[in-house]
Please model this.
Amino acid sequence: MFYRVGGPADAPALVLIHGFPTASWDWHLLWPKLAERFRLLAFDLIGYGL
Model:
């Protein structure tokens, strides 16, 4: 399973779940701004993405 983690380790966690039929790449434009305030986890659901 592919996943991506980012943001400060001590920040509140935010799990990013993509829609159907897409992948974790959906979050690439928002990632830099969200990573300023949150610990991010985005993953590809089984059968999608990498």
Summary: The first helix runs from residue 31 to 34. The chain is about 10% helix and 30% strand. Residues 3-43 form one domain. The mean pLDDT is 93.
